[in-house]
Amino acid sequence: MSGGLPRAWVQYTEGYTTSSADGGSETVAAKAQRILLVEDEDDIRAALATLLADEGYEVLAAPDGFDGLAALDGIEPDIIILDWRMPVIDGGRFIRALRDEWKLPTPVLVITAGRASREEALGTGADDFLAKPFDLDDLLAKVRALSARARAP
């Protein structure tokens, strides 16, 4: 844990089976995609981290934008799920720092219960937007779409 920041890792790696020429099989660990989840509400952060881990993602959860940016010192996530309205550093400032200072093209999904418009989030550099409350299947569909886009050459 870098800098003594409050972080909660939820790790999950799903395996897959391959067949060999001699008819045997071998279980091989698949590399889980890493998601940085930045959400200030403890219950929502814990529930989303568990859901995503159960879907096979490796999740690093941060309670605010400051800790989320600090987490980038130790990891480069494949996707970022970001609450828009948070204390310390809000979603807009987080995205500007991610793009302008860190120079990371990591896809960002903004989630919010606030009045932030889709245009405001997307105009700041978010890749997608989901209004709270949302259906968990919708969240997973957006994460899968961002994941596929991130993996594309």
Question: What is the count of β-strands?
Answer: 8
Terminal residue distance? 32 Å
- Radius of gyration (CA) equals 16 Å
Query: What is the 3D shape?
Result: globular
- Helices and strands: which structural class? alpha/beta
What's the short story on this structure?
With 153 residues, the protein is an alpha/beta fold. It has helices spanning 42-54, 65-71, 91-101, 118-124, 136-151; strands at 8-10, 15-19, 25-29, 34-38, 58-62, 79-83, 108-112, 128-131. The protein has five helices and eight strands; from the N terminus they run ββββαβαβαβαβα.
Give an overview in words:
The chain has 5 helices and 8 strands; from the N terminus they run E-E-E-E-H-E-H-E-H-E-H-E-H. It is of the alpha/beta class. The longest helix is centred in the C-terminal third of the chain and has 16 residues, at 136-151. It starts with 7 loop residues before the first strand and ends with a helix.
Helix and strand arrangement:
Layout lengths: L7 E3 L4 E5 L5 E5 L4 E5 L3 H13 L3 E5 L2 H7 L7 E5 L7 H11 L6 E5 L5 H7 L3 E4 L4 H16 L2
Parallel strand pairs: 4-5, 4-6, 6-7, 7-8
Antiparallel strand pairs: 1-5, 2-3
